[in-house]
Write a structure and sequence with these properties.
By secondary structure, this protein is α/β, with parallel strands linked by helices. It has two domains: 124 residues, NAD(P)-binding Rossmann-like Domain (Rossmann fold, 3-Layer(aba) Sandwich); 182 residues, Rossmann fold (3-Layer(aba) Sandwich). It is 32% helix and 15% strand. The strands form two sheets. It has a seven-stranded parallel sheet with strand order 8-7-6-9-10-11-12, with helices on both faces. Strand 6, helix 7 and strand 7 form a beta-alpha-beta unit. Helix 1 runs parallel beside helix 11 and helix 5 crosses helix 7. The protein starts with a strand and ends in a 13-residue tail after the last helix. Bound molecules: glyoxylic acid (GLV) (2 copies). One glyoxylic acid binds next to loops.
Amino acid sequence: PRSKVLITRGDIPSAGLSLLQEQCDLIVWNETTPIPRSELLSKIVDVDGVFCLLTDKIDEEILSAAGSQLKVIATMSVGLDHLDLNAIKSRNIHVGYTPDILTDATSELAVALLLSTSRRIIEAEHALRAGKWTSWSPLWMCGPGLAGSTVGIVGLGRIGTRVAEYLKPFRVEKILYTSRNEKAAAKTFNGIRVSLNDLLSQSDFIIVTIAMTPETRGMFDRDAFKKMKKNAIFINVSRGEIVDQFALIEALKSKSIRAAGLDVMTPEPIPLDHELLKLDNCVLLPHIGSASTEVREKMAIMTANNILAVINGKPESMPASLNL
Ligand code: GLV
Ligand code: GLV
């Protein structure tokens, strides 16, 4: 019999979908909004594989609803914080994800967010449309440039490394990073490994690319924002939960830091009456780090191939599996 695969969204790039269609029976949540938990609980019951997104929380309760035939969960994301990895491991289920192929796109967006925030691009464009451009003015819409600055990258993984490489041609003076160990890749941009405290107190721009885990949840708290320079700009392209958002809002309101650029926040989507939306010194994007057309297509294909490898009895040939 053909294997059954649950797909938790209706608008998956078709290249990934058709790969699965050739070999499996698909159960698709055919909407462009996240599958409700009750639907996930009932639809996972008899499937062999799950194609999910970062909006789907897969925990003990969901896994208990699945049958013992469930062999693979493949997420169309590099982040894994929505998956309870211990619960998955205890059931010997394979986990697929999509590293590397989204590194360029996400790093590019981090740089875009940094430039938009420091050079006040979004704020300035809104001012123009609102008729506030009265004349060329020496002090209007000024912000710090990148040349000569110190950039701190929190978590020098694939994305952090690429961001550093992209920033080098902007003539930043120093790139600091935190990481569990010295990274050979940092040589290419003369990156200096420092403690988090040193990074926070010395950086003009702080860019967060570290993965969200129980250890990094809430790591940017009141204390962390207090250690930053008064002109610091804070960029987050990882997960909103890495930040104590109340502490960030307080820092932005009191101008104890200069500005923030966020591709991730809590909750997502952010309600339109949220405090963050009232701040001029904050650029907010709707979690679009990997949103390049080509990249999203590759992510769908990789996710499909992660599932097919396991279903065909060759988990060792998964394009990207997590070693649990
Ligand atoms: C995006 O946030 C991802 O994890 O792929
Ligand atoms: C994090 O997942 C990274 O790729 O840096």
